[in-house]
Write the structure tokens for this entry.
Amino acid sequence: MTTPINLIAWSGSIRAESVNTQLLDRALALVGSHDGVTVDRVNLADFEMPLYNQDLQEASDELPEVVTQLGDRITAADAVLIASPEYNGGYSPLFKNVIDWVTRINMFLFANKYMGVLVTTPGSMGGVRGGAQMAQLFENMFLPVHQPPFSLGKFYEAIAEESIEGLDDWVAAYVAGARANAEKVAAEAAAKAEGEEASS
Ligand SMILES: Cc1cc2nc3c(=O)[nH]c(=O)nc-3n(C[C@H](O)[C@H](O)[C@H](O)COP(=O)(O)O)c2cc1C
């Protein structure tokens, strides 16, 4: 039987015509052809967070509601798929700000979630450096990261085609990786529960 998985997805750009949001939409359309995958599509424009500042956080006993709301949705997911722009060879401030805020709920909020990164640029380089940096950030958090990130240069030429070269295979591999990871996490949790029951 196919193990069902929950995937949460967002774009690290809230620009109206964002090429990364368009790439995410194309990827999610392909995810839809795989059995047993439910997708929670988040629009970060609905979760507007101030620029993270520890003083701002500590000025209140509670985190902003949008932070905890997004955190609840992340907690419910087995896997995370993010398409996000490359800015000056790195990630976008929006991408990082969201990660910083939600990890204030719990620094292990993303634990065991299978991370996937996509990046695209109108130029020919495809945001390879930004994609690698985003993947590295998640690896620094000891998360399972699908490698390599999907990067796509010359977005406007690529999107004009019926299918984006390599995206179908990348999405299939990502979904398979996310499912295998969810099965491993469930098996480890079951073994732990069994061990605790035996020792009680
Ligand atoms: C601050 C800034 C830095 C950028 N740096 C890069 C870069 O390092 N490499 C690149 O290929 N494009 C770069 N670009 C161009 C972006 O790839 C382009 O604006 C893209 O459309 C942004 O993604 P979005 O459409 O999803 O918002 C940069 C754009 C901005 C605004």
Q: What stands out?
A: The longest strand covers residues 5-11. The chain has a mean pLDDT of 97. The helical segments are 19-31, 54-58, 65-75, 93-102, 128-140, 155-159, 167-199.
